[in-house]
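Quality-control log, excerpt.
Job 1 of 2 completed; input and output follow.
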Amino acid sequence: MRNLLIAGLLVAGFTLYSCHGSNSSDKYNENEVTSNAETPPPTTIEGKVLTRENSGNTASAATSTGIDVNAKSDSKGVGKFTDANIKVGPGIDAAMAAKGKAVFQTSCTACHTATAQKLIGPGLKGITDIRTPQWIMNMITDPVKMTHNDPVAEALLQQENGVQMTNQNVGDEGAREILEFFRQNDGAK
């Protein structure tokens, strides 16, 4: 019984560290100022120069990579999900969305909200308006691969001061259910 308690505490500590921990040396210096001449203008993943008109936000979230993480991107991300293996219909599958909401509440709410409010990670309201279904599912199922190989995910990691999203092992079906919940949450028809 004692060993089980110790193991449980270690798992809980590791989980909290994974979701909340970051090395203070990874944090940016709030007093550091760079000139616009040294920093290229922020761009979308497609290479278009970002303006207030095409960002969808009045405040730019461009990182030093020059990518605005709030700008719409057509990237599919990096991973096993492609156009061919994701079927997203025009309507919402309410049963799937309900399952996705339960998975989201169990696996994701330690770091994310379904609103625009930032917690540990970004709030996810509107995510389906700016990311493809493939990108979302690739990020859910293999966030480390995404943050190391996808420019938008890398920029998100940088924006979050190096706090890596952890793989919650929800599986392919769970990821698809979460996607359907996000679609419903964002008002998809």
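Job 2 of 2 completed; input and output follow.
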Amino acid sequence: MIGAVIAMQSEADILLDKMKIFRSLTVSGKKVWVGEAYGKEVAVCVCGVGKVNAALGAQLLISKFDAEKLLNFGVAGGLNENTKLCAVYQIGQAVQFDFDLTQLNGTKIGTLDEYAENYLALHLFKADFPVRLLGTSDRFNDSPADYKLLTEELNADIRDMEGAAVVQAAYAAKLPVYSVKAISDVAGSGSTTEQFLQNKDKALKNLQKALPQIFEEL
């Protein structure tokens, strides 16, 4: 069983539209659909925005639906010239850039207490999706400080609000985890909020086109 952890209903709909749905239910306040997509069994959880929601959704799929691997996809923000509006990228490594124990133990920003490195590696597809680094936090903003941290210290290419939390949950359960993001906004190109609202639908259409390749390898 593939467990798909997705923040927003609009993101989940690009997969649900292609699924043969066997049942739908609400578990711990999270909507879940179980069915078949592209010949694979899948449970889709719309977890809600943010890291706690993402971790809860991932654990729900692991504990209640016996997910054997996790997939996180959706729209995200680009940070540099390596990310183009509405393009689709797979995530090679992810870090929680709002997690900071530096003052306590001298570790790099984003290093979880139970790990030695701040970036955690994901499984990769052989399909031709360019690989990028993801920074995750519970913030959607145009903060110059966050941008500097992400680009100069962490060298991240993409930012979102869920991905690295799903990776953390997968690591805890010792499950494979994959993530694919379509770019809805790019830092330095005006308000990220305005860009997000303008480009979200186009980015999701491009991501939907990539789903057959994604599921072929899962």
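Post-run check on job 2. The CA atoms of residues 15 and 208 lie 7 Å apart.
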